[in-house]
Amino acid sequence: MDFMEKSTAMKRDWLATARTLSEALPYLQRYDGATVVVKFGGHAMSDDAAMERFARDIVLMKQCNVHPVVVHGGGPQINQMLERLSIKSEFIDGKRVTDKATVEVVEMVLAGRINKQIVQAINDQGGRAVGLSGKDANLIVCEKATKTRKDPESNIEKVLDLGFVGEPVEVNPEVLKVFTDSDFIPVVAPIGTGRNGETFNINGDTAAGALAGAMKADRLLLLTDVAGVKDAEGDVVTRLTPDDVRRLTDQGVIAGGMIPKTETALHAMERGVGAVVILDGRAPHACLLELFTEHGAGTLIKA
Ligand SMILES: Nc1ncnc2c1ncn2[C@@H]1O[C@H](COP(=O)(O)OP(=O)(O)O)[C@@H](O)[C@H]1O
Ligand SMILES: CC(=O)N[C@@H](CCC(=O)OP(=O)(O)O)C(=O)O
Fold first, then answer.
1. Is the shortest distance between the CB of 74 and ligand 1 below 6 Å?
2. Which residues fall in the annotated binding site for substrate?
3. Minimum CA distance residue for ligand 1 atom 6
């Protein structure tokens, strides 16, 4: 490529960048002042570069007067720590059976190391993040979650004991308003408080949905490690209604870790959240693409 060709190619790149910025205008106007709850899953935060990109997107959102509330997971990181401590762990429908020893490790990993890593990553990008857990200011009060499953032989519903897995029953989001109304960015670990002083392990998606519902957030973004919700053929579906979600779950197409996400989506929408998007947190700038471009990303769940 000679000098003239090179400079023409560079001008084309700049123009494309300027066009992208200009095309963001209607989206910036639509989300001006909006509250967006972003769940950052343990798989999505797999490496330092992914964490840095995520933090940069969150700071950019806040700079554009969109108010992010970050709720994080950390399932794989909890697994690693439990393994080091030789504590066995199992999941039922995407939720970790959590005994007394496990809940101590869960709180340590989520409200400690991971929460502070995300806070630091956001602050490194020029944001002002504040870390909290659901215990702070009674943000998320829980009761013991119950799970029933039909025994295939007897056809009788059996109650399964998940231990200290929490189901949010009361959310007090006033403390988050203090942050979203100023230039702080709250980062919430999914640990809940019980009415009798218990510590509860809440699935990260469930916690994000409970907060989004209580705040009547405009959008709930669930960042994970797949491109979106897949159908029976394994293709990502770009849009689903609540009825589609129920059908895919009954058919067993939505399974495992995807169940808490889609359940959360339906609950959050019942509580007034505009729409829920399940998207690939490993894809560069997934949040920005979803909010500020016409392309969108992942699976949009909307009535
Ligand atoms: N229909 C489906 N579409 C996409 N992923 C699905 C589906 N059913 C089950 N999954 C599983 O759900 C996983 C996402 O849940 P999870 O591992 O808990 O994510 P995270 O750690 O991000 O919360 C996917 O990696 C995939 O294995
Ligand atoms: C009850 C329950 O399952 N809690 C989760 C909390 C972390 C989480 O949700 O992490 P991801 O978002 O990375 O999956 C757990 O113990 O793994």
1. no
2. 74-75, 96, 201
3. 258
By alpha-carbon position, which residue is closest to atom 15 of ligand 1?
257
Q: What is d(CA 116, CA 129) in angstroms, rounded to the nearest whole number? A: 9
Task: For residue 301, list its beta bridge partners.
Answer: 240, 276
Identify the residue whose C-alpha is closest to ligand 2 atom 8: 73
**Interface confidence (ipTM) of the complex:** 0.95
**Reported pTM:** 0.92
Closest by Cα among 170, 171, 192, 189 to 130: 189
User: The tokens of 130 are what?
Assistant: 């504040």
* In CATH, 34-301 is 3.50.50.60: no
Give dist(CA 20, CA 214) in Å, integer.
34
How does pLDDT run across 138-165, given as a tens digit for each residue?
A: 999 999 998 888 777 888 888 889 999 9
Query: Residue 129 and residue 187: Cα distance in Å, rounded?
Result: 7
Contact (CB, 8 A) for 277 and 297: yes
Whether ligand 2 lies within 6 angstroms of the CB of 168 is answered as no
Domain ranges of the chain: 34-301
